[in-house]
Amino acid sequence: MAGQTSAERFFGRFPVSRRAVGGNIQGMGLATMEKKVESRWLRLGRVARWVIIVLVVILVAVRLSLPWVIKRYVNQKLSRIPNYSGHVEQVSMHLWRGAYEIIGTRIFKSEGKVPVPLFSAPSIDLAIEWKELFHGSIVGTVIMTDPQVNFVSGPTEATSQAGFQEPWGKTLAGLFPFDINRFEVRNGDIHFRDTFKEQPIDIYMKDLHAVATNLTNARVVGNVLPAGLQASALTIGGGGFNLHLRMNPLDPAPTFEVNAALTNVDLTALNPFLRGYGKFDVERGNFQLFTSVASVHGNYKGNVKVMFQNLDVFSWQKEKHKNILQIFWEAIVGVAASGFKNHPHNQLATDVPISGSFTNTKVDLWGAVGSLLHNAFIRALLPKIDQPAHLQDVGGPPAAIVH
Prior knowledge:
Blueprint: H1 6-11, H2 18-43, H3 46-79, E1 84-94, E2 99-109, E3 119-128, E4 139-145, E5 148-152, H4 168-173, E6 179-194, E7 201-213, E8 227-235, E9 240-247, E10 256-266, H5 271-278, E11 284-296, E12 299-312, H6 316-319, H7 324-339, E13 347-357, E14 360-363, H8 365-377
Parallel strand pairs: 4-6, 5-6
Antiparallel strand pairs: 1-2, 2-3, 3-4, 3-5, 6-7, 7-8, 8-9, 9-10, 10-11, 11-12, 12-13, 13-14
């Protein structure tokens, strides 16, 4: 027929659909490809085929055994921490992104009777930081999800737990084959506990989010303080915590500028702590703290501003059930607080200058007293950092200049 190709006229003689013909042609193509692959496989030779099979088996065996090997390695590292021991439940591999995840980590005091672990985390993810490869650095990132740290105070060393003297940074670095350049904490908790007081004490920060970057100076920038840390959290008593830190982690002497604020803490939530350690409590009041410190060449300088607002220490209706010596002490504290309070603003505050070296701390006592009197009788201090501390204040170079 006019308009038909020779192929269409040929296939038109048979009762076969175009779909069937296409399927047969496709099937013939697949069969041909399979024959070619089989032919190439046979042409490799017997030795080459066995080498490929052995390599595939080895790769599969290595992939299957990696979680067990890494889990054993991590547990060995954690078991070598002085005075503490650790354990992980499981390791999960993520080779496609150059990472592995440590699941169910617990570090606890190996001797003594401490009821809670020093550290626990459902998930710790260690991975290569791919974007830094473009800057010529092979470094890693660590993300901790829902970690919890517990500091415990007790009457003896066996019932206390601090861990400040242990090499935690070295232990963490040993879990990853590359230098750690970025560290992130998501939804962390920090607790100070003392269950040996008449009323158990639990001072805490929760919902802690922190990100530290450029810890190995992987990305060279024109700054004496190339690394940074940003952190925020909620505290006991409905307060807020914020921290901004710039530092040089590679400098052998502490080199940093830090600004931190603790705001709007309801002091009544701290009454178990105040009773246990200060032998008094408060009827009402809010607490705020602001600090700014710079350090270079082993020396530091800065200030700490402490503020109490709407503070009421002594309430007879509540105190009359206590013994006479405790009532007398709380009355003295209450009178002192009232005497140095800025009454128009209902505020008791002082700004304390601090300076010195890390082997010799100096607190300007007279400066603190002067600030207290200035707040009480001249002008109320403002709830903020007045003058942030800088490296130049301690005899160091400006942070934006590289030497």
